Amino acid sequence: MLTPRPPIIVILGHVDHGKTTLLDYLHQTNVTAGEAGGITQHTRSFQLRSTNHELLTFIDTPGHAAFSQMRYRGSSVADLAILIVAADDGVMPQTLESINFIRQTAVPFLVAITKSDLSAADPQRVKHQLAEAGVLVEGSGGQIPAVSISAKTGRGIPELLEIIHLLASLSPPQSDPEGSLESFVLESRLDSKKGPLAVVIVTNGTLKIGQPLFQTENIGKVKALFDSQGQPVTLALPGTPAEILGLSRVPAVGSLLADKITSPPATSPQTDKTQAEASAARFNIILKTDVAGSLEAVRSSLGPEIQVIYSGTGDVNDSDVLLARSSQSLIVAFNVKVPSGVSKLAEIEKVRILSSNIIYELLDNLNKITSPQSEETILGKGQVLAAFKIGQDRIAGIRCTEGVISKSDTVKLLRGDLPSGTAKIKSLKISKNDVISVKSGTEFGAIFTPYLDFKVGDNIIAIVTHGPTRS
């Protein structure tokens, strides 16, 4: 018999726009502080109680571009989505991607405009950008709920929870706890001590200790279950996340675990590249990541010039090094350990290991190694002191801090130490006068093309590139 279950709510949005910080506030944990580079690397699912004591299940998904498949998987299983947009940054590439996912899955959603406590916050600009993307919120000609929040101060959080409750009550989710088991694999990995593990959300039936699990064949029996707090439990009801121990193999992320053979084979993230791509490849790698979702995310970001000889989850081991030596491959390791003994073997065998626990850093470094690179000469540097708008143009007030910056120069925008965009200088002015170039110590206004999402405190570097070479 169908009975109400907790709504499953997915958080979608651009990198560093405050998804995990919001859940941190709600959950009263310190999830964000433990993340490499401040970025959520995995899909996390957990439960909490709202102000009216109703149970809510949240899926926290990464915002980096490479994790797009994980975000889509999250929105596929959700009853409700929260689209996160930072009030200072506005609509960004992964914001648009998330909007597309929401449209494809037709999941009801609301907009949470985060970081509203910042001095650079501009909620009206965010709403205008959303309208340009086809998302019309309340107060801007549409009916999609939108609320400005600050996950640091708690401002707007009660209103957010009230809207979640209202939207969930319009079409209360239901499942049959006595029916056939269906559990959706959000994450899976191979633990060196516990063996294959999977994080699932139960969508129908009840997951129990001792229960055999199936896909196209039996893949084990539930030996232990852990709830969203990591505490052992004996069962997991519909709408509940749980980690399963006792599997005979690592199930594909995105697949279903059931109590009988019903599922067709899931498309595995380890599927090899097409023959055409393989023939075009000119650089071999061995890929090791912590979990299957990360494996899928990294693989989806690789260009056709890269051939994955082998991929898997778990720490780098001696076998990986020996395979890399025989296949003349680079070992790429994401969020896994490289034991000292393995490092020594790699040094002896002259095998290079590229390792990082931050995905954009790993991909950038891999790109430098495998792709033809253009040499860059720095012409000048500057710092953004002001941002304002005249007509349709957004103008950056900049002080040249080094060298010379000229009209038509290519510039790189840096936010902290991270690249945040590239454009050309369309217009260069001192006061109201057009100029060709400016020297160190000069303050000037610049318009960029294409659009560059700068803000006060960012730095720019004017560069000129020279012929491609392999890094």
Major sheet summary line: 7 strands, antiparallel
Number of helices: 10
Helix content: 10-25%
Shape descriptor reads: flat
Highest CATH level, the class of the largest domain: Alpha Beta
- Can you tell me the residue ranges where pLDDT is under 50 for at least 5 consecutive residues? 265-281
Number of strands: 29
What fold name goes in the CATH topology slot of the largest domain?
Rossmann fold
What does this structure look like?
The chain is α+β, with helices and mostly antiparallel strands and 471 residues long. The chain has four domains: 3-174, Rossmann fold; 182-258, Elongation Factor Tu (Ef-tu), domain 3 (Beta Barrel), CATH 2.40.30.10; 275-370, Rossmann fold (3-Layer(aba) Sandwich), CATH 3.40.50; 373-470, Elongation Factor Tu (Ef-tu), domain 3, CATH 2.40.30. The protein is built from ten helices and 29 strands. The protein has helices spanning 19-27, 68-77, 93-105, 123-132, 157-170, 275-280, 292-300, 318-327, 340-348, 359-370; strands at 3-4, 8-13, 44-49, 55-60, 80-86, 109-114, 146-148, 174-175, 182-191, 195-204, 207-208, 212-214, 218-226, 232-233, 235-236, 241-247, 256-258, 283-289, 306-313, 330-334, 353-356, 372-390, 393-406, 410-415, 418-430, 433-434, 437-439, 443-449, 459-470. The strands form six sheets. Strands 9, 10, 12, 13, 14, 16 and 17 form a seven-stranded antiparallel β-sheet that branches. A six-stranded mixed β-sheet has the order 3-4-2-5-6-7, sandwiched between helices. β22 and β23 form a beta hairpin. α2 packs parallel to α3 and α8 (318-327) packs parallel to α9 (340-348). It is flat and about 75 Å long. The termini are far apart.
